[in-house]
């Protein structure tokens, strides 16, 4: 039963303990020896107490391994500046400038980051600003391509400003994916939220990317049309979906931020329509939480493990929501690994998994997502962190597989001893 400590999470540990107990009860000497071991070590032997001991362990200890302090995937924000003035965006309202600053990641720092973190093979480039405002974008794409590092712009770009040369570079250097935030199917509707944006120019940029994809015979970047559903644009969803199909883009309806960053902007009117179009059976984020007992963007918290976010100036923000505080600086504090191993990061991870109470020094205490976790008792579960994101899932799954095989060998060895004892 001691080897249960090698599995992931409480549920898997207790399941393995139950299985081990069933095995041991088939052979009285083995049971007596096992009970004696726990009596000597803990002074108590009942299965319920064993489960309590297991639950009392730091369930995040398993994740203090290279799979998470050396993640293969990170998010490195190339820009916190944006030329649009979207009403409820904290960048447009100046909040981001006051908290983490307005700036651009220079090519030299991008090269420095890759050189000092050779295990990173996949990078998200977008978050608080418009990636295409970074004048070094073409060179960054080329440098990453030469180093065989995959780049993505999945959090979104408005694609309102981009030179033909950069659009070609996006294809030529194999940007893996590009999400375009287009909340309308006409200039009149689109510009209500994407203030100062030009709908026709954005669509033309997408057509140019498709033309370059054909020229280079490339499937990259995979294009995605993100449509944030508001009351003023819900009637154009069907038309936008049809346009996305013509442009070879995946189409996705996203629930509006509601009051995540400020006052509610243009709440949906046809709630049944949005429930259908969202594919979730909900019309807004409040309804989502009522239905699923978790925040709509709760998976953002997984980024601390799977794809930690880094500001343009090197500050480790952890996730795509936090802009209040950081966990160190990759350029001045010894690199990403040091920041991720820090006590502040470890305490924050424990908070998000419900292992410890809130710590005032963690950025999460100011976040609505964490408040939702507390309210709904919806903590991050270890199995949620084992997946395709970054390299974490592969490394962790490998460790789990080895542990299971080891338990299997012990089981078979015990069976052999049992058979020998009967002869």
Secondary-structure map with pairings?
Blueprint: H1 9-24, H2 28-42, H3 47-56, H4 66-69, E1 73-76, H5 95-99, H6 107-116, E2 122-124, H7 137-146, E3 150-157, H8 164-172, E4 177-181, H9 187-193, H10 199-216, E5 222-229, H11 237-246, E6 250-255, H12 271-278, H13 285-292, H14 303-306, E7 309-310, E8 316-318, H15 336-341, H16 343-352, H17 368-376, H18 392-422
Parallel strand pairs: 1-2, 1-7, 2-3, 3-4, 4-5, 5-6
Antiparallel strand pairs: 7-8
Give me some keywords for this one.
423 residues; alpha/beta; TIM Barrel; 8 strands
Short summary:
The chain is α/β, with parallel strands linked by helices. 45% of the residues lie in helices and 9% in strands.
The CATH class of the largest domain turns out to be: Alpha Beta
Q: What fraction of the residues are assigned to beta strands by DSSP? A: 5-15%
* CATH fold annotation of the largest domain: TIM Barrel
Helicity range: 40-55%
- Tell me the strand order in the biggest sheet: 6-5-4-3-2-1-7-8
The CATH homologous superfamily of the largest domain: Aldolase class I
As an assembly, this protein is: single chain
CATH architecture of the largest domain: Alpha-Beta Barrel
Q: Find the count of extended strands (DSSP E, 2+ residues).
A: 8
User: Helices and strands: which structural class?
Assistant: alpha/beta
Please outline the major beta sheet.
Answer: 8 strands, mixed
Low-pLDDT residue intervals, each spanning 5 or more residues: 1-7, 49-65, 388-407
Round the mean pLDDT to the nearest integer and report it.
Answer: 84
Question: Cα-atom Rg, whole angstroms?
Answer: 25 Å
The helix tally amounts to 18
Element string (H = helix, E = strand): HHHHEHHEHEHEHHEHEHHHEEHHHH
Distance between the termini: 26 Å
Question: What is the count of structural domains?
Answer: 2
* Shape, principal axes of CA atoms: globular
């Amino acid at each position: 039963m001691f080897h249960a400590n090698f599995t992931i999470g409480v549920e898997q540990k207790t399941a393995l303990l139950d299985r081990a107990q069933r095995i041991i009860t088939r052979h009285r000497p083995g049971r007596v020896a096992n009970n004696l071991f726990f009596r000597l070590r803990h002074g108590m032997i009942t299965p319920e107490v064993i489960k309590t001991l297991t639950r009392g362990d730091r369930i995040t200890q398993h994740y203090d391994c290279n799979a998470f302090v050396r993640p293969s995937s990170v998010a490195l924000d190339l820009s916190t500046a944006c030329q649009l003035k979207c009403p409820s965006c904290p960048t447009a309202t100046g909040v981001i400038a006051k908290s983490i600053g307005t700036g651009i990641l220079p090519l030299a720092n991008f090269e420095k980051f890759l050189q000092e973190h050779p295990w990173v093979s996949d990078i998200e480039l977008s978050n608080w600003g418009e990636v295409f405002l970074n004048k070094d974008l073409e060179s960054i794409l080329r440098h990453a391509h030469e180093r065989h590092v995959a780049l993505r712009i999945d959090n979104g770009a408005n694609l309102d400003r981009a030179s033909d040369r950069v659009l070609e570079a996006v294809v030529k250097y194999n940007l893996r994916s590009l999400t375009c935030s287009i909340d309308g199917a006409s200039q009149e509707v689109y510009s209500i939220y994407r203030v100062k944006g030009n709908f026709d120019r954005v669509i033309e940029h997408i057509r140019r990317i498709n033309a370059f994809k054909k020229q280079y015979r490339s499937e990259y970047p995979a294009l995605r049309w993100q449509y944030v559903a508001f009351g003023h644009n819900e009637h154009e969803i069907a038309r936008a979906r049809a346009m996305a199909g013509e442009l070879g883009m995946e189409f996705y309806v996203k629930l509006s931020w509601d009051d995540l960053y400020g006052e509610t902007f243009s709440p949906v009117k046809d709630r049944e329509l949005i429930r259908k179009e969202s594919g979730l059976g909900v019309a807004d984020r409040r309804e989502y939480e009522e239905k699923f007992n978790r925040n709509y963007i709760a998976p953002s918290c997984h980024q601390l493990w799977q794809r930690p976010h880094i500001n343009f100036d090197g500050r480790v923000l952890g996730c795509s929501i936090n802009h209040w505080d950081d966990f160190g600086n990759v350029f001045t504090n010894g690199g990403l690994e040091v920041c991720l191993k820090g006590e502040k990061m470890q305490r924050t991870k424990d908070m998000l998994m419900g292992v410890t109470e809130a710590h005032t020094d963690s950025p999460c205490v100011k976040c609505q997502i964490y408040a939702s976790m507390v309210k709904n008792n919806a903590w991050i579960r270890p199995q949620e962190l084992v997946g395709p994101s970054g390299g974490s899932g592969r490394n962790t799954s490998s460790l789990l597989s080895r542990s299971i095989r080891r338990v299997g060998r012990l089981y078979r060895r015990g069976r052999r001893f049992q058979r020998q004892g009967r002869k």
